[in-house]
Amino acid sequence: MRFVVLAAAGFIGLAALTACKGEEEVMAKGSTTCDPATFEFLVGQDKSALDGVTVPEMVRVMEENSPATMDFHENRLNVVHDADGKILQVTCG
């Protein structure tokens, strides 16, 4: 009886594993911590590319030459774009 229960449990586990075989794990780009190198892929893209990207809790998106506060937050992601919305630079601070 014990063998039948173990065999059934093993079969169910194998069936569940086989069912997941075709699925791909989707990794979100970005990070919850600020590291400019992690966000370099955004440079040259439209600022709408930020949608769906994992970002730190603090994000500042601004047009180049816009006034900005000078306070420093090491985990704030700064995204600078041009008048057309093309991302020019990503920094932390």
UniProtKB/TrEMBL annotation:
Residues 1-21 form the signal peptide. Keywords: Signal. It comes from the Bacteria. InterPro entries: Prot_inh_I78. This is Peptidase inhibitor I78 family protein.
